[in-house]
Structure formats: C-alpha cells, structure tokens
Amino acid sequence: MQQILERSDRAVPWDPDTVGLPEAPSDSALARINDVAFYANARNEVSTLASVCADLLHLHSPGEENEHRCRGCRLPWPCSTFGEIARLIS
Questions:
Q1: Does pTM surpass 0.70?
Q2: Residue 39 has pLDDT above 90, yes or no
Q3: What distances in angstroms separate CA 37 from CA 14, 15, 17, 34, 53, one per listed residue?
Q4: CA pseudo-torsion sign 12, 13, 14, 15
Q5: Nearest residue to 62 via CA among 83, 76, 80, 81
Q6: Per the structure, how many domains does the chain have?
Q7: What residues contact 46, with CB distance under 8 A and at least 6 apart?
Q8: Largest CA distance in the chain
Q9: CA atoms of 33 and 43, how far apart (whole Å)
Q10: Which residue in 7, 89, 80 sits closest to 53, CA to CA?
Q11: Nearest to 42 by CA among 2, 15, 3
Q12: Residue 79 in this model has a pLDDT that exceeds 80
C-alpha cells in the first residue's frame, strides 16, 4: 500500500491534452465524457483507497511487544480483518 501511495504522490495529474484517450468502443459523446471523468479521478481515488487500506492494516496490527492480539479488535493476531485485507491486496 505504501508503494501505491508513493507512486500516486509522484504521478502527474492526468489531463486529456497530455496523455490522450485510449480508443473507445463507442462513438457516444456521453461515453467519452465518462471516460475522461474516470481517468481524471482515478489517481486521487486510487490514492484514497490505498490510504484507507494502509490505515486499516495499521489499526489491525499486533498490539504491544509480545502481545499476540490485534490492536484494533483485540482478537488473536492475525485477526480475520487483517487476513482478509492481506488476501485481497496480495
């Protein structure tokens, strides 16, 4: 997650004039507008999602030294939340 956040921070904001649009399966103006909106917002949305995932992983990390319980939910660590997030992002 940290690598995604770092790459997002370094990325140049998307602009149709600098990057261009991929070939569209449709000539519909509405479809093209939706494509532009998707690409323009993707950088920020990916960064936000990565930040949320990183926060959740931090919250559901092991507690204090030699404590084998989740800091967030107090279940034995690794808790099911940590396991599921790790599975989904791997």
A1: no
A2: no
A3: 10, 10, 14, 5, 24
A4: negative
A5: 76
A6: 1
A7: 4, 8
A8: 61
A9: 17
A10: 89
A11: 15
A12: yes
Residue located via tokens 């950088």: 43
Position of tokens 């107090």? 74
3-21 in b/e burial notation, b at 16+ Cβ within 10 A? ebbeebeeeeeeeeeeeee
Mean pLDDT for 27-42 is 72
Q: Which domain does 78 fall in, by range?
A: 2-89
The secondary structure of the chain, three-state, reads CHHHHHHHHHCCCCCHHHHCCCCCCCCCHHHHHHHHHHHHHHHHHHHHHHHHHHHHHHHCCECCCCCCEECCCCCECCCHHHHHHHHHHC
Residue tagged 């959740």 (tokens): 56
In the block, tokens 């507008």 appear at: 33
Amino acid identity, residue 75? L
d(CA 51, CA 45): 10
